[in-house]
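Sample 1 of the test manifest.
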Amino acid sequence: MHPIRKKRLTIVLFLVVGVSVAVALTTYALRQNINLFYDPSQIAAGEAPVDVRIRAGGMVQENSVIRDPESLQIEFTVTDFTSSVLMEYTGILPDLFAEGQGVVAMGRLDGNGRFVADQVLAKHDENYMSPEVNDVLEKAARIRASEGAGQVEKSAGY
Amino acid sequence: MYPELGQMALILALLLATLLAVVPLIGSLTGREHLQAFARPLSAGLFVFVALAFAVLAHAFMTDDFSVAYVANNSNSLLPWYYKFSAVWGGHEGSLLLWVLMLAGWTLAVAVFSRQLPPAMVAQVLSVMGMVTVGFLLFTVLTSNPFARILPNVPVDGADLNPLLQDFGLIIHPPMLYMGYVGFSVAFAFAIAALINGRLDAAWARWSRPWTTVAWSFLTLGVALGSWWAYYELGWGGWWFWDPVENASLLPWLSGTALMHSLAVTEKRGVFKSWTVLLAIVTFSLSLLGAFLVRSGVLTSVHAFASDPERGKFLLLLLAITVVSSLTLYAFRAPVVHARARYEGLSREVFLLMNNVLLVAATLLVLVGTLYPLVLDYLDMGRLSIGEPFFSLTFSPLAIAAGFLLGAGIFSRWKKTDGGWLGRKLLWPLAVSMLFTAAVLVGYGEFKPWAFAGIFSASWVAIATFLDLWEKSASRKGRLHGLRRQSRSYYGMVLGHLGMAIVMAGATVASNYGMERDVRMTLGDTAAVGDYQVVFVEMGNRRGANFTAEYGRFEILDSDGQLVSVQFPEKRQYLVQRSVMTEAAIDAGLFRDIFIAIGERVSDDAWAIRVQYKPLVRWLWLGAIFMAVGGFMAISDRRYRLRETVQKSVEPPAARDSEQTPGKPAGATS
């Protein structure tokens, strides 16, 4: 083969191999590591998979935070004001975690509808509301409005 | 009065930038030298007016002029003066002005340090810089005026700078990062000018190399500073979160690294020209993409500024114009250039090509991982996030492979390398790094395949680099003479590659052998982490300039019970924004950090405490410093400043190298 063609062929081969390895790795890794977001209503309706790492979020319900006196385990309820889900977490919570505030947690649902979180994120300044939590509350408010209960609560956080 | 002056200065700068974008370019296309000669004065004028605007904004901050909305939103009279100054770039408008200032600064630098370039080339490069500046100045003036006033109800005091940003890291992290981002616009301008001319030759590569290297060095420092800042200020001990904004800074770094290496090949051997130009365009576009991600409100993170759809649209438009017009130009002009030089299947060219393939693959990975959730969300196809596991799984193998290649590539020669010879050469480094890696793993007491691969790759790079230095510096007049004879660009390369080895070692060890414990502690409790004991001694209160703090006193004891150090982590309550901040305390060391942070109070007498043992975590930033110093050293090489060299290299580049017999080292490639 002509040396220049051979050289070009090498380059093309490198590129093809490199790109396909990258694509294969990416798709494989993506399939393993995508974390879908579910809101409390979806979880209550059983739409969220059990024992798959997902994200969930909403507002921390007032007076729902219970601490274990011996360890760093904590339980709290996250709500979209239509449904709620019980979350469990062990470890240090972010500075801005508080009742009545929005949170997004990463973790798995166990068989009993409990969400075991391995990571909890709270908003990181006063003006910021995570878009997920915002969506959750808006959606829940719309549903309540369309159900025509007559009164639409104004959810905290707006 | 002053703020209006600032705004006038910005508008004048915009006019000058428009002239700069048009006049010298027309001059160079029509061959009118008097029009080309406008490029340098216009660049200087542009810089003066942007600097004036910046100075006015800084003045407004220093004098607490809260009638300026941006100052009122980002400062407070209680702030110490240095944070008032750094608050200039603590929000969207001011940081954009800093960006424009850097752009004007780089333009001026090109104008000053381009005496040896042909005037037409200078005119074109400066014109392209002018076009980029027009885009950003328009953006500033139309959507993000930092001098907008709140009149007549001037606030009594400002809303304060976000406490997260009241930190030494913020003073220097954005300027370094922007120097890098914006610096790639020079490489971009050179590429566009070369495309307009149809002159993609070794001289072009030689001119753009130092600019690319400086920008890359700044970006390296900026990214490392960001990681360091996140580590001690907000990260609870993490040093890289694969947060979209961090990725936005990593993307141009990866493609910029590829660009630097491919420029080396283009300069030395006159091949890969079209590829190099494409990389220059891509790198700058990725810098713009970063600006878009951070400033459009599509992301929510510490870095994301207040969201405003108008700004996002404008930046997207700017990005689209840049990408589409430069790629169109590329499509029409790039095929014109042909490479004449030849090289074999095993040669330094091919090693550097593989380096580029890996770096581009890594860039694509990070790009996909960053944009995929955003695109899905935009198309309303659900919210999802792609976290650290994805990036670790895909990025680590690429980094390790890049290390393997680098260690072998160091010994390779231009044009043709004998496979058997290279194999024999690599035998010793292979054996030594195997043994070394095994020893390290025994030292840490646990075998992990990823740790083995990472440490092996890092030590392989380091050993190969040293061996190459050893062989190159062999001289009949003694070792010292031989070491002195090496060029600065060679030492730059050595430092850069050692830096990469250090970063890889740090990343591998810190993530594989680090220990993290969240414990509930009352006064007098002890928590063990690694070989150390951390004793919680007392809790106290103190008052800072604009915050009150609860602090803990912790004593760190080593395995013999000897006191190593006393640490005071804090929980701060900032007075103006009423926000709580965790200030970690770190006992830093070259081989390990011990990190203590106070979490929330869990009962009357107990706190949640995070203790971490982080081996080699400092190496991450140390390695980055090595890389950046290497970059600065490389550009201080005399050959970039010699008029004769430049003229010589306009001749076919193969002429010089072909005199060397194959199989003889062809010099530095950094």
